[in-house]
Structures are given as structure tokens and as C-alpha cells.
Amino acid sequence: MxxxxxNGIRPVRQQHRTYQVRTYGCxxxxxxxxxxxxxxxxxxxxRAADGADxxxxxxxxxxxxxxxxxxxxxxxSHLAPRKQADPNMQIAVGGCLAQKDRDTVLSxxxxxxxxxxxxxxxxxxxxLERARHNRTAQVEIVEALxxxxxxxxxxRESAYAAWVSVSVGCNNTCTFCIVPALRGxxxxxxxxxxxxxxxxxxxxxxxxxxxxxxxxxxxxxSFADPDQxxxxxxxxxxLRACGRIEGLERVRxxxxxxxxxxxxxxxxxxxxxxxxxxxxxxxxxxSDRILRxxxxxxxxxxxxxxxxxxRAAIPHAAITTDLIVGFPGETEEDFQATLDVVEQARxxxxxxxxxxxxPGTPAxxxxxxxxxxxxxxxxxxxxxxxxxxxxxxNTAQVGRTVELLVATGEGRKDASxxxxxxxxxxxxxxxxxxxxxxxxxxxxVTTTVTGAAPHHLIADGAPHTHRRTRAxxxxxxxxxxxxxxxxxxxxxxxxAGxxxxxxAGAGRxxxxxAGAGRxxxxxAGAGRxxxxxxxxxxxxxxxxxxxxxxxxxxx
Length: 555
Known about the structure:
This protein is an alpha/beta fold. Among the domains are: about 5-140, Rossmann fold (3-Layer(aba) Sandwich); about 155-395, tm_1862 like domain (pyruvate-formate lyase- activating enzyme, Alpha-Beta Horseshoe), CATH 3.80.30. Helices cover about 30% and strands about 20% of the residues. The chain is built from 15 helices and 28 strands. The protein has a seven-stranded mixed beta sheet with strand order 20-21-18-17-16-19-22, covered by helices on one side. Strands 2-1-3-4-5-6 form a six-stranded parallel beta sheet, with helices on both faces. The chain has a three-stranded parallel beta sheet with strand order 8-11-12, with helices on both faces. α12 links the parallel β14 (about 320-325) and β15 (about 350-355). The radius of gyration is 23 Å and the shape is globular. The chain starts with 17 loop residues before the first strand and ends in a 22-residue tail after the last strand.
């Protein structure tokens, strides 16, 4: 990993150099891009205005889908004339595809200045400076995480919703997935560190957090801190602890793995008021034979059993999923099994994918790779089925009153229809009539659903209530939270297992302990204070924003 002192080169503060980060892929990449932005801003770069050429363009890439390579190299080609005209302009490529193609990025696009991987995003400012100083491309890929990325500065995209990583990496060995090879084995953050970051975000006005990991319900078995005891119940306890954070109105999480989904998590979801009534749980296939070939360590009956228990505890839960069509060797009978499970599960929506062969995965070496025409035909049948179910499930919402967290960028037709958009507590997208009220993204409204489509709801009556929020104030002022090293404020979490510090907003601080049964007092802004008990019941205690282009890495 590049150090600041190496070759006498250190990341100096840039004067009026602008940057742009282009993100492809899952929520992990979206959150990593917030960190990349935070790193660059800490080094003095400024975000380029929309539509303006940037001095530094960073690609944060995905390696999951087949067209990821084509998309990256196509976009790099578009920048080649700019680079030729302005040699001082810099291009950096990071993320999963960079980790995978470390040796080929420069051969395919020799005008790239920096290539970095998934484990060393904190090196970006130094690599850019070294490339500029030495006038030669810099490639740095490391094989293991050297610093948990949440310690890095992050420039958040949203004033009202935020991602919070609970882990990085994955211990599963799904045959279709290349992510574990690129992100590494699972490493979990201490609960106290996670809660400190959540508190810092809430103190800056954030209303909703999404707890993020490749397999969140495996949380607790792979702590980075060797002094932190393994605890298979850690994720349920973490959800309950989030429920005790004053001002945190919504908690979501993604993505869990069905093989490790336990009843204590269902109970925590049902009994913690700010945990939203929604669950995204990848199915991938309804065929037990295909699940076995995928190395998915559950079967259709187990999956449906989890859904039944969730709905028994949370009757109005909206359940969504990921599905892969055309896995090698999939027969018509296998595909019909998937359709049968989709019929029974009644997903409110699904991210559906045509299987794509990824070099380096076991599935790429399997015989019986299906003809593209067969895969496309099955894919369309699945889409048609799920679209019908989604419409039926959404139509059942008509007449219900919903609470919306008003969002920005969610409604493509909002300007032409004079509507605004927001997310209900169950995650459904609702386009609503603001009825002349001065509603801002980040505010909370309640309204009644009047219409439905497969992918959204309509609420054309006037809102029943409108609550202005600090998040709405921040959005209107163009402010977003900052977390990590170098942010304006600090939030310090102390506990038996260690401590962590995060931003709490300009001039603010928040200090709290979270050992079992302990209480804490923190300052939450000028002249304000609050006391609450965290009490995880654990020994040694140490979810938007920009929408992803997919639901995740098909966990």
C-alpha cells in the first residue's frame, strides 16, 4: 500500500482541481464511492458541477455482470480524446473490475493514470499525486483489507438516508459469483463502531440508515477485532440497538442469506419499531437441483418457510428478491420450479438477471451453458409473471395511508406530472401530489394511495400531514453528512472492546458507551443533549442515497 512518505511524495491539497466519481454496480460500490469522494475532498478536490468536465474522473467498477467490461472500456474510450487534449486531466479505475483486471486495464486503456483495488481505496489521493509527479501510470492492487473502509472520510450523497457497512467481504462460495475472490473473506466491524457511525449520521439529521454487508445475517462470526467474541446473535442485537437511537426513524438492511436467516432476526424486526417492514432476501432459483449446483446452502422449502415466519410476525412486510435465469444445466422443469416458488412467495418486486458467464467462477466451467435464446425466452416469462404479481400486490395498497420519506431523483416524470416521490416504510416507491405545500426531500408526509402500477404507487390526494425535518433543512441548504477521519465533528463510542471516532457534524460531538445495560449522554448540537441506554447485552462491545444499478452482487 502506498504510504504518504514513499519516494517523498504525499497527497498535497489540490487547489481548485475538480473530480467526478462514476459508479457501477451494487450498494457496496455506491457507498465506496462516497468514501472516494470524501478522500478526494479531504485532499482539496472539489466536486465537478453537473455536466462539467472534471480534472479527475474516477470509475468505481463492477465485475458481476457480463457487460461490466464493455461498459467500462467504452466509457474509457470516450475519455481518450479529452486526455490527449489535456494531459493534466487524470483517470483512475477502481472497484471489483480493477481488482480482477489489474494486469489488463492499462493494456486496454493506456491513457489511464491510476488503477487501484477493493482493499486500498484509501490510497487514491496518493496514487493520483504520484502519477502526476512521476508522469507515469500507477497500479496498486493489494490482496487483503489493510484498513476498514468505514474509517475513511465519506462525503455522503443524501441528507436524509445513508449506508452503514457492518462488514466487508463474503465467506460463501456461490459458483456464479466472483465477488468473494475480489472483496475477500468476510470481516465484521465491532457493534460499537457501527453504532457510533449511525449516531454520527443521526446527529447530522439523517433519518434512515441501511445496514450493509454481503451477508448481513452472518454478522458476528468474523470480527476484525480478535478481542471481540464471536456471536451468532450479533445482528439481531445490532438491530435492537439501532432501535434505541433517538432520532433514527428508519432502519433497513441488505442483503441476508437464507441459509443463515434465524428467528431472532425476525423477532428483532417485528419488535423494533424503527426497523422497516421490508426484507430483501435473494432466492436465485426455485429449483433445489440448481440451488445445489450454485452452492446455495438452502432449498426452496426452507426459503418459503422463512417468508412464512416473516409474514406471521410482520403481516404487511414487503418482500423482494434476486433471481437468476439460465444457470448452466437449467432445464424447463428447473425453471418451472422457479416460477412455482415465485407464485407462492408473492414478492412485491424482484431483481431478475439473465445468467452471465464470468471468467474465474466455477459456473463458467460447467457444461450445458444454455443458448441465449432459451435464456431470454425464460427471462421474459419470469418478468411477465413477476410484473403481474407486483401489480396485484401494489393494487392491494390502494386506499391505505402511508408515511413517506420524501426523496430526490426517484421520479423520472415528477416534473411533468407536478408530483414528488418518496419511499413508504415498506420500501415501496410512491409518487404523490404535494398540493402546493412546500415539501422538501428529507421531509415526512402521510398520504393515501389512490393508484398502482407494478413498480410504484400513486397518491393524488393532498397529503394528510407534512413534517419538516432537519434532513429537509440540510437538503434545501445543499448540505450532506460527513463521516470518518477529517470530518468536521466527532462522535466517540467507548466500550469494553475498544473505541471508534466518527463525524457528528460541524462543531458537534457525541460520546456514549454501549456496554450491556449502560447509558450514555451526548451533545447533539448547540445547546442540546440527550440520554439513552444502548444495552446490547453483549460482552465487550467494541440503509437512499444514490440508487444502485443492481440490488447487489447476487448474494
